[in-house]
């Protein structure tokens, strides 16, 4: 028996991901749920980040907040890239204002034992949260997500956020066999985490390889791409978005790793990105997230430029070039959604 198509199947977002005609350019924002919203800060009061991620009522409420406020075309599941690592037993926490911090960083082959496979029983709260969200969202698609093996490895090896990823790269170049085993473990965990979300009803996924722009293309191909490709292949039943920051040199390879949609940061105009990626892929992006602090006329003009650039693509999902900054005025994002939905024909632009 074939499952009935989800109520979100014909949404503008999923149509754009599939490179089908759309009634308007769909828009959502990376990190749309979070500290830019007063209603988020109110709900999070007294709840640690990782506890909130494991509480279905909170996950559901926080995921819905930006959908209500902005009228975006997709919801992104409220969680974090380190949630599956915590779920398999890695001793880590998310420190406010810092990010993920790992107690005992990954150092030797013995540390591989601390990265067992993830099963759905390790994350019952994810299944429950996704199911509840899909029911609440109706025709609005839910995007599931995970961190890609390289970006997760960076947190594990460095022990926390890092600017240069020096230890991570030292392991990659210096002990390539151990590196391959580490990324293989992380790919196995990541793909299981995405499968849980898709099996519970998420209608697309985004793989965040936020920090992979630290690598040249040849090393990306040799040390990273096969592992990300294995993750993406495991969720081929839904559209897959593949995103990183500073990845102008990697766009073609990130597309070839199996993505349906390639996320582009603000450094590369979308028409150039389309040339680099080639046919058969949609693009997502790429308004500079700092532009929300510019005067409204400038913001409007830049939104229009991104929409114009996006016409070069077979499918365009409007987004920021990276996540919403915490100081962002929610009204500026609301304005962006309105302008994107009005489209290029709108004379007010
Ligand atoms: O709205 C959404 O996009 C969904 C929620 C989401 C969070 N993290 C919630 C969160 C998503 C998609 C992420 C992904 C994530 N987490 C990434 C990839 C995206 C990117 O920005 O490149 C990365 C690298 C992480 C790791 C991480 N977790 C960082 C860097 C931080 C911020 C540290 C800080 O406080 O400045 C976190 C914590 C985190 N994840 C917060 C939220 C809302 C802030 C915690 C809080 O509100 O207390």
- Name the shape in a single word: globular
The molecules bound to the chains, other than polymers, are: coproporphyrinogen III
CATH topology: TIM Barrel
Please name the CATH architecture: Alpha-Beta Barrel
Number of domains: 1
Q: What sequence of helices (H) and strands (E) makes up the elements?
A: HHHHEHEEHEHHHEHHEHEHEHEH
Strand content: 5-15%
Using only C-alpha atoms, the radius of gyration works out to 19 Å
Largest sheet: 7 strands, parallel
Helix content: 40-55%
Strand neighbour order, sheet with most strands: 1-4-5-6-7-8-9
Can you give the mean pLDDT?
A: 97
Structural class by secondary-structure content:
alpha/beta
Gap between N and C termini: 48 Å
Overall description:
With 349 residues, the chain is α/β, with parallel strands linked by helices. The protein has a single domain (26-342), classed as TIM Barrel, CATH 3.20.20. The chain contains 15 helices and 9 strands. The protein has helices at residues 12-17, 38-44, 49-53, 56-70, 83-87, 124-137, 149-158, 166-174, 176-199, 217-223, 225-233, 251-256, 270-277, 296-310, 330-342, and strands at 75-76, 92-95, 99-102, 142-147, 204-208, 240-243, 261-263, 282-287, 316-320. It has a 7-stranded parallel beta sheet with strand order 1-4-5-6-7-8-9. It has a two-stranded antiparallel sheet with strand order 2-3. Strand 6 (240-243), helix 12 (251-256) and strand 7 form a beta-alpha-beta unit. The mean pLDDT is 97.
